[in-house]
Amino acid sequence: MQNVYSYIRWSTDRQDQGNSLARQTEAIKRFCEHHKCSVVEELTDAGISSFRGKNYHQGKLGEVVQRALSGNIPKGSILLFESADRMSRMNLGNATQLFMDILASGLHIGICDSLSIYTKESLNIGSFIPLLVEMERAHGESKRKRGFTQSVWKKKLEQQKQGMAVTGKCPQWLRIEEGKFIPIPEQVEIITDLFKSTLTTGVAEATRAINEKYGKDYKIHQTQYLLKNRKLIGEHTQRLTNEDGVKEDGETFQDAYPSVIDPGLFYEVQEKLKSRKPWSGRFEKTHSNFLTGLLECRYCYSSVRFMRKGVKEYYYCTASLTHKCSRPGTQSVRAETLRRAFLNLDQFTKVREFLSASADESMALERQITILKSSLSPKIARKATLQKKLIEADEATTEVFVDAIKQLNTEIASLEAKITTLEDERSNALQFAGAQIHIDQIEWLVASDEPDAIAQRQKLNRELKKLFKHIRIDFKNKILYFKPNKEGFYPDFWLAFDSKSIEPVLEH
Predict the structure, then answer these.
(1) What is the chain's Cα-based Rg?
(2) With 50 as the cut, is the pLDDT of residue 246 above it?
């Protein structure tokens, strides 16, 4: 008799209160009676959506697949779903990949509503096509509901512009009274004081002053968030998530909240923040974060921030610091752990291949520069000859020589500009290939405060930004996911912190 691991899922709390659990439980019972098998473990993802694979990346579904891969679940056990949409509502490509990943783990897949069992050995086109149709239908239905939800919120925001509070949530400096947003004077005073202080001092100093004056415990990242929060001047921008799970800005609504900061003061502070020197203070001295501008959270796609706590350094998901990450709790990893994994010689093979390719690119730039200079030299010589002839020219030929020299000046200026651009690109490229990096060089590159090491880290950061669109951190499973910047240049791949393996993956 085969072991059955039943999987039950619903997306919202309202379904929890309805008959979703009872319906799925009854379908599982009928399946087991038909195939004469029994459930050995029940797996439930309550209130977890599968539209972007959250149930797989963060829920019980992903956990049971990992258990099967590690051998903790016998091969040939059935992972049972009421229907295909309980497993996934992702787009067809990602849903199919998930289906294949489950089979590859050694599990069989059972679908209650068709009484079907899918195995890696028995899968065929006749049985697979109806499942593909069901997967596509499930995704289309979720997409339609998502569009309806967004249109409802758009109507609510229009109501909010009229002064009505359409949600129980509101910014910390507002409260809701009789269905309207009302500013909290004490909070507005603190925030206004913060803005005014920031005009004359740095954010860190302004934060300390506010904490001392008002007995608060604001962290720098909190005051930085406040200083850029456009809700203070009444704006609200929709944050939408596309089918790939990437968050994007939607429509911006004016007057969605009461404006509590004078717009002139707000924009003056924004200009002041932009004008201040980056990498200021202690961080500038070492520029330890050679991954700046590259890291994103694997769960919510928010930026990842480099921060110090005493002598220790960490990478944090910025959204998790304000409890807005899709995974509960603060998401962080020791900076040293991440950097060692990234630069470990056993694992660095593929990254070094990128850098080696970059060295090849540098050589290609050198060849282009040589070709352009070879074109430039005869033009300069030709211009010198024409200038000599112009001195001796008669009135009839002077204009011809002048026009020819003007044309050459244009061509020479264009070539010189191209050469300068290419030389800048070449000078910014890393000059070491991956094969030349040794352990002592890695220690020096990561930790040294020598000017040469700092410069090399800055070069490495610039080069990595050319090579990768982003590097996402799975904080829970300690995995880095690399997305190349150039299509077709190299496939996506992942790198585990505590493993020597690097495998190509498809980005979900």
Answers:
(1) 30
(2) no
- Closest residue by Cα to residue 222 from 194, 201, 192, 197: 194
| pLDDT at residue 146 in the model | 57
Distance CA 347, CA 500 (A): 5
Q: Quickly count: other Cβ atoms within 10 Å of residue 165's Cβ.
A: 20
Kindly list the domain boundaries of the chain, sorted by start residue.
Answer: 3-145, 174-275, 287-348+437-508, 361-432
Average pLDDT, the chain: 77
For residues 197-215, average pLDDT: 89
Q: How far apart are CA 228 and CA 195, in angstroms?
A: 10
CB atoms within 10 A of CB 3: 14
pTM for this entry: 0.35
- The single residue listed with the structure tokens 């593909």 is 132
- Which stretch of DSSP H or E encloses residue 391? helix 349-392
Same topology for domains 3-145 and 174-275, yes or no? no
Q: What is the 3-state secondary structure (H, E, C) of 279-317?
A: CCCHHHHHCCCCCCCCEEECCCCCEEEEEEECCEEEEEE
**74/82 Cα distance (integer angstroms):** 22
DSSP string, 241-284: E-TTS-EEEEEEETTSS---S-HHHHHHHHHHHHHSPTT-THHH
> Phi and psi (nearest 5°) for 428?
-85, -15
Task: Give the pLDDT confidence of 53-95 residue by residue, as tens digits.
Answer: 788 878 889 899 999 998 899 999 999 999 988 888 888 888 8
CA-closest candidate to residue 192, choices 232, 155, 154:
232
Query: For residue 253, which phi and psi values (nearest 5 degrees)?
Result: -105, 130
Dist CA 296 CA 81 (whole Å): 32
**The CATH fold of domain 174-275:** Hect, E3 ligase catalytic domain fold (3.90.1750)
What does the DSSP 8-state code read for residue 11?
Answer: S
Burial 167-181 (b: 16+ CB within 10 A, else e): eeeebebbeeeeeeb
Tokens of 414: 């264009």
Closest by CA to 24, choosing from 111, 133, 96, 91, is: 111
User: Which residue type is seen at 414?
Assistant: S
Confidence band for 181, pLDDT divided at 50, 70 and 90? confident
The answer to whether domain 3-145 has CATH 3.40.50.300 is no
